[in-house]
Amino acid sequence: MLRELDIRNFAIIDALTVSFAEGLTVLTGETGAGKSIIIDAVHLLAGGRGSQEFIRHGAKKAEIEGLFSLENEQHPVFRKLEEFGITKSDGDILLRRELNDKGKNVCRINGKLVTISILREVGASLIDIHGQHETQELMDEKQHLYLLDQFAGKSLAKSKESYSHTFDKYMKLKREFSSYTENEQQIAQRIDLLTFQLQEIEAAELVIGEEEELVLERKKLQNFNKIYESISAAHEAIQGESKGLDWIGSAMSELEHAAAVDETFTGSSETLSSAFYLIQDTGSEIKRILDDMEFDPGRLNEIEQRLAVIQSLKRKYGSSVEDILLYHEKQTDELDKLVNRDQRFQLDQEKLKEMTEDLRIEAEELTILRKKAAKSLGKAIMEQLKELHMAKASFEVNFDVLPNSRFDRNGHDAITFYISTNLGEPLKPLTKVASGGELSRMMLALKTIFSKHQGITSIIFDEVDTGVSGRVAQAIAEKIAAISVDSQVLCISHLPQVAAMADQHLFIEKKVDKQRTTTAVTELDGSERTEEMSRMLSGAEITDLTLQHAKELLSLAADRKLLMK
């Protein structure tokens, strides 16, 4: 659940800290008081799109911080945290986002800097926001298939994954196949270009590791004089007259005399003797090298030319010899396909035919699974609509195939939700027959169904009860309260029926301080809550009658909530 929300310099909010309770929290207040601004802040915290316009006038940055607490240690969000290397802290997750006046975002999870995409992925596991715009999802027929697949869940996921893999191979082969129909002149030009490139690479006779060896050899040749002088000096120091080896030889003889008299010096004598012969061999080896050393300016020139050839190829075909050879292999395959395109055309035509059939079979399997899920979804929605006083409605998932019998990433199904809101009326597309209030109830019905299959900790409803009243309003209130039994629900509402079902009632209002408008939040209880309920009922003046009505509504709501638990 979202335990605490801290907002700084966001829209008209100066500084605001709100603590939330379990169950249903309702936010009420006059239009424009800032209720939706709080939800916008939560949306931004969950990775929503940010804008400099969110920053309070005169401030450098907006800051939003939210503390979430999870009792379920197996919640999927913890696996995400582990995947991203984020430390978890006793079931608490702290999300933080800053938006500065330059448009830059700084996002943190449990203090660790993360990208906006990671914040969005983690936020989606914690928060589910539904507003009036959610009805637009229902009005977009392209979203109906997504909603059906979401309902189908694991029973469809495995088959859909297999289909996606086949679809990727199908699209790759189809792109290759389409290349056969390209303009002949373009193909001829491409063949000439590939032939030139391949011949240029082959003429270089590249060898892996050659460049590194040449660079090392060039370094030796460029420093020949320094090396020769150093080796000569070393040889002179070792074997020159009255130099190192002579002195070590004298020391060796003296130690041998001492060891003959006193065995104490035997070890030292043997060590020095070994060193003498080792140094003597080294001196001889250095002399041999000196005799063989000869500077060859022609070889240095050859190396420079060879390295220039390799460098030129690297600029054209890859950053290393390995990359150039891989490029050669790839272009050889392409050239072979172009030169032998008639034969390959026949082979790929057969492959494409076979893969199209494989794709069709897997798409049909998806259709079968979706139709099975559609029946269950239809029954579940009808049960929810009945509880929302749409018992006369009929709902059905209509199946069609994509135009021209084509396939896309989801199969070949074109899904449309059909509904009839009145008895005796034919089923028609949901997008053409539902009113605003009916769409709100449809969305709430879907949310009730989907919330049973998701691990979302906090569900937010932003004025989803717009356009309803009377007993429908009461039914929506009870439906939202029922969802809050298993998940924390935050709800902005103008309906007293919804507010009455709240476990926590927050009143949002504008205040003016030092010629600046800001938003304030007050938790209502007792008489204050009764007065706010009375205001929501009357819309203006609070009277004894509206107060009595508010008390009665709160009492009835308390009884209904007891039955839900």
UniProtKB/TrEMBL annotation:
Belongs to the RecN family. Gene3D superfamilies: P-loop containing nucleotide triphosphate hydrolases. May be involved in recombinational repair of damaged DNA. One of its GO terms (cellular component) is bacterial nucleoid. InterPro entries: DNA_recomb/repair_RecN, P-loop_NTPase, RecF/RecN/SMC_N. NCBIfam families: recN (TIGR00634). It comes from Planococcus donghaensis. Residues 1-511 form the RecF/RecN/SMC N-terminal domain. This is DNA repair protein RecN. One of its GO terms (biological process) is DNA repair. GO terms for molecular function: ATP binding. It comes from the Bacteria. It holds the Pfam family SMC_N. Keywords: ATP-binding, DNA damage, DNA repair, Nucleotide-binding.
